[in-house]
Structures are given as C-alpha cells and as structure tokens.
Design brief:
mainly alpha, Mitochondrial carrier fold, 2 strands, globular, mitochondrion inner membrane, MCP_transmembrane, membrane, repeat
Length: 345
C-alpha cells in the first residue's frame, strides 16, 4: 500500500511539474509575442516619425528647392533665373503661386519613404550591442549607410521629380507615374538611375556629416554645458534647431558639386537640357555625358568652375531650416507617438 501511495504521489508531482512548466512556457511565449509586437509597433512609429519629418521639412522650403534645381540645370545661353530673389519673383510672375510648389507633391511622395528609411536605418546602423558611445567617425559611417539605402530605394522618383520640377509648361510629363512610364519606355530602365553614382558619393559627406555633426554637437553641448547649459539636461528645441542648422550647412557645402552633376546627368535626354555652342560658333547642341567624370569636365570647361556651385545660395537658405526642421520634427513626433528609441540612444 505504501508503495502504491508513493507511486501515486510521484505521478501527481510529475503532473503538477508538467503543468507548471507548461504554464511558464506559455507565459514566456506570450511575453515574447508581446515584446515582438511592441518592437514592431515601435519600428512603425519610428518610420512614421521619419516620414513626417521629411514631408514637413521639404514642404517648408519647397520654393527654394525648385529654384535651386532650375539654377543647376538652366541653359547658360538662355538665362531666366539670376539669383535667389529674382528667381523667386520670376517664377511667381510667370507661373503663379503653384509654380513655387511645382514638383513638391512628388518630392514629398519620394522624401517621406526616403526620410523614414534614412532615420530608421541610421538608428539600426548606429545601434551598439555593448552600449558603447559612438564616436563621430562611427556616426558618419552610420549616417552614410542610412543615406545610401534610402536614396537608392527612392532614386527613380528623385530622377523624374527633377524633370517635372524643371518643365515650365504643360509639356512632357503629366505626373509622377506618367513621368516614370515615359522615361522607362523612351529612354530605358537605366535612365531612371542617371546620376546615381555622384548621388552615392555625395551621400557620404552630406548625410554622414549631417548625422555626425548634429549628434556630436548635441553631445558636446550636454557634456560641456556652455552658455549656461546644465550637464545631462534635455536640450531645448531652439538649441536642437541650431545643431541641425550647423549640420546642414557643413554637409551641403562639401557635397554640393556632386549634387549639381547628379542633376545635370538626370537631364540628359530631356528636351530642355542645357546646350553648348558647337564648333561653328552658331549652332547649339544638347550636352551629353558619358559618366560622372565627363560631366564634371564638360561643366567646368564650358561654364567655368563656378558652375559647380550654381544654386548654392538658395540651397544654403533652404538646407539650414530644412535639416533643422527635419531633426526636430522627427524627435517631436516620436515623443508624441511615445517611441522610446531615440537617435542619441
């Protein structure tokens, strides 16, 4: 009898142990699912924040963005836009208010996913498993990788956006999808990536320096506490705007010639592309480029070194608030959405 009781007790203990183990496994699984759901939701919120930041910042400076592109690619033998103020007035006079925002719709359609991927890619690239502090070089690398991924994913939209922005009448393209289809059928799929190489090269100093300078300035201000700032305190929106402005100024100045070359390569095959006077001194023929180096060489030869900085003034006026607004909007939207992950983390 005692033996039977012992066996029964052992069976009961085993059953209880099995039930407990099963319950613990179910609990662990449930917590894992909840953690995964929270992580996925955080990623979605981070992407939304990046997209909103890009859309808001670009819309705020859309007139200057369009003028910059027009200055970069206008025919040197038929100058319509001569400076920032004159250029904006000319657009207003000839095309009205809508002309100032021509191409902004497609730009937002491009920049929202671009900015979302860029900000999220940066956070993933800069995520350090041992929580060691990122130095400026690592930040530059993380920012550059994020920029290349985001730019490559949305490049065809940027290419046709440039074409739509440049056309000043109801001519060739009726919208983004019509432009994509027209370029694809008339010039081939490779045409959608014209100017991709200088864009990639330009991403390294531009996006990389944006993130590196912005984060490094924030860290320096928090740790050194100049101008009465208290260490380890949250920086104000005004201070973050100043950091973003400085980051944008450094990045765009270094990378600007590559942006000009990219835009000019995108215009090859376009009926309004810049022309050059041929050997007889009378006729004009559209410029053709065999590659990035050839585009640099022909631009400098026919228009001088200064042509590599055409549109720099409106771009400088544009980039400073654009980058600043993008960074601050990104962090504000993440605060509103309750995302724990931050760039500085």
């Amino acid at each position: 009898m005692a033996s039977e009781d012992g066996v029964r007790k052992t069976d009961e203990d085993a059953a209880v142990s099995t039930i407990v183990n099963t319950a613990e496994e179910a609990k662990d699984f449930h917590e894992g699912v909840k953690a995964s759901s929270r992580g996925f939701l955080s990623i979605c919120k981070s992407l939304v924040a990046g997209g909103v930041a890009g859309g808001v910042s670009r819309t705020a400076v859309a007139p200057l963005e369009r003028l910059k592109i027009l200055l970069q690619v206008q025919n040197p033998h038929n100058v319509k836009y001569n400076g920032t103020v004159q250029g904006l007035k000319y657009i207003w006079r000839t095309e009205g208010f809508r002309g100032l925002y021509k191409g902004n719709g497609i730009n937002c359609a491009r920049i929202v996913p671009n900015s979302a991927v860029k900000f999220f890619s940066y956070e993933e690239a800069s995520n350090n498993e041992v929580d060691a502090e990122l130095n400026p070089l690592l930040r530059l690398g993380a920012g550059a990788c994020a920029g290349i991924i985001a730019m490559s994913a949305t490049y065809p939209m940027d290419m046709v956006r440039g074409r739509i922005t440049v056309q000043t009448d109801k001519s060739q393209y009726r919208g983004i999808f019509h432009a994509l289809k027209t370029v694809f059928t008339q010039e081939g799929p490779r045409a959608l990536y014209k100017g991709w190489l200088p864009s990639v090269i330009g991403v390294v100093p531009y996006v990389g320096l944006n993130f590196a300078v912005y984060e490094s300035l924030k860290d320096w201000l928090i740790k050194s506490g100049p101008y009465g700032l208290v260490g380890d305190s949250e920086l104000s929106v005004t201070t973050k705007l100043a950091c973003g402005a400085a980051a944008g100024t450094v990045g765009q100045t270094v990378a600007y010639p590559l942006d000009v070359i990219r835009r000019r390569m995108q215009m090859v095959g376009w009926k309004d592309a810049a022309s050059v006077v041929t050997g007889d001194g009378k006729t004009k023929a559209p410029l053709e480029y065999t590659g990035m180096i050839d585009a640099f060489r022909k631009t400098v030869r026919h228009e001088g070194f200064g042509a590599l900085y055409k549109g720099l003034v409106p771009n400088s006026v544009k980039v400073v608030p654009s980058i600043a607004i993008a960074f601050v909007t990104y962090e504000l939207v993440k605060d509103i959405l309750g995302v724990e992950m931050r760039i500085s983390d």
